[in-house]
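Quarterly update, task 2.4: zinc ion-bound model.
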Amino acid sequence: MGSLKQIPHTRIENLSFRLYSEEEIDKISVIHITKDESFNSLGHYFDKGIYDLHMGPMTSHDNDLCKTCNSSYFYCSGHFGHLKLPSPVYHPFFIDVLKEILQRVCTYCYRFQASAKRGVEFFYETKFLNAGFDKVEVSTLVQKAVNDPTEAAESMLDEEDEEENDRSRKKTTSVNEIGTIISELEKEFSKIKKTRVLRLRYQDTKFLIKNVKKSESIFATEEKVLQGLVSLTQPYLTTEQAMEMLRNCYKSDGRILKCLYPVLCSSNIDNPTDIFFLKKLLVIPPKYRPCNTVHGRMIENEMSVLYKYIIKWSKCLRFLKSSTEESEMPEALKFLLKELKGDTIVEKRFNIMCLLQGSVDNILDSEINKLNRVAQKGIRQVIEKKFGLFRRNLMGKRVNYSARSVAAPDPMLGVDEVGVPLDFAMKLSYPVPVTPWNVSKLRKLVQNGPTCFPGALIVEDEEGRKITLKADDVKQRIAISKSLLTRTESCVKKVNATKIVYRHLDNGDYVLMNRQPTLHKPSIQAHKVRVMPKDRVLRMPYANCKAYNADFDGDELNLHFSQNEMARSEAQHIITTQNQYLTPKDGSPLAGLIQDCIVASVMLTVRGKFFNKEDYQQLVYIALSDLNRKIRLLKPAILKPQQLWSGKQIISTILLNLIPEALAKPTFNFKTTVKVE
Ligand SMILES: [Zn+2]
Ligand SMILES: [Zn+2]
């Protein structure tokens, strides 16, 4: 590894988000999409349709090349196209902001409904607060600034310069505090009594106006629309009108608007308020909205359906707007118009606008209008929350060679064992290099294949190519098994080149078991595998419950299968349950007998319980089966009429045999109290 200096790195100081302006959309987009059809009768994409190859190929099977970067499906990451909307629609993310502004603004002079003095005060307050002054300083500074605007502005600039040298000032007000102070100011600012303002309600993708009389003036310019609108039950604000209002508002009170909504400062276009509207819509590349085939029928992605919908209705609206004779319209459009709700042209135009707005809302955010949505997931839903792109795909991670299941007890397992279901064992694999010493065993495994236990899943050749063993092709498996030791021609002269067999998890393998929360070292321990052919759960002996803090009311355990000899060795000699007997915390024993084991030991050692020779020797043998020496037995407690051993004698025999021979016998005694309920 190189030294730290060679690693390129940067420190991020700040991060800001903004919206694309119309010009930027033009620059990014590779094609203006105008056709609402997808394929012609031969199944080719239409030029300028929603699958135009300029945006990159949609699927890999046609070997299409991207017309923009000339790469195939796998190398082209897709390019944006764009749609033009006949009239602007509201940006669905800014509906609330828009409503707020429109309701605070006077409909005559387009200034905020506050005294001019308060407006100026507000402007300076936010400015000073953002510059890092605290609340007390701000009030005096603001007074100074309001009284003499020109000088104040200069003094403020001076102060800012000073601040560059003296960074300590910034510490007095944290970013959070500034946020709360500003939001307080905003609230105060919005409480001012509203006169001569629009009362708006956003419903079904349009702004309805509540009190028409007071705001009649703004309709004067669009008298035609107004005349048509009389038939509608409630007048509404067209997007063009709203856009015009905001532009005027920016002209007269832009300074304050920028303070309230910093997003307006981010772009350099002439009318920053236009970002609240969408006139052009970016079309995401076809690659990310592929068609599905269900029972041989092509089903288009919801996103594509929405784009087509928008193009279709945009065409309609353009025809209606251009006031061409109805006879000149294409038949398809005429049919569409007939189906549309509304009697007059104006009403139809209005309805089309609603449809367009609804579709755009749906593409960007499907939560806005849940009733009429086509796509279940808008772009916003793809990104945000727990199941969004960031938290699920970028921050979350998956682990290979692992398994997870409910844990169940099994008193017949050894203390260091774990019972693994056969299904798991046949999915997990371990890479074993082929050598002359293990080749006969591996041949057998390869011939067994992926579905016969113990078998193998994959064979990797000397060059790293992986061949999946097919469950239904015995000939393939036999052929591969016979050539396990034969080197591929290109690798004959390579040293250490071997084939690798990915065999099933087998009895005696060591796996790491883990139960969350992983609070201490023994929360992960290595266990020896015993494959349980009939089980569907992980089986665990009782003794390890305390280490994992597990019970069997539905607790789940994670299993990790280590993938090289080093890790296996560490698992077997360091992490194994046998070496985790004492708590790292205070040295008290971790493993112990609980539940069934307690009941069994009570029943075993209760007074008057006797065993004949056969049972006595059997029980002792089970306990000491891994002892590699002659087992010493005790004389029976009762000789006549039959040789009988007491239960306590079984325990004594076991202890006797476990004491190391060469050492002195351990001397210990302790008292304990048992609570009897
Ligand atoms: Zn491309
Ligand atoms: Zn006014």
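Highlight for this quarter: Residues 106, 108-109, 111 surround zinc ion (ligand 2) (CB under 6 Å).
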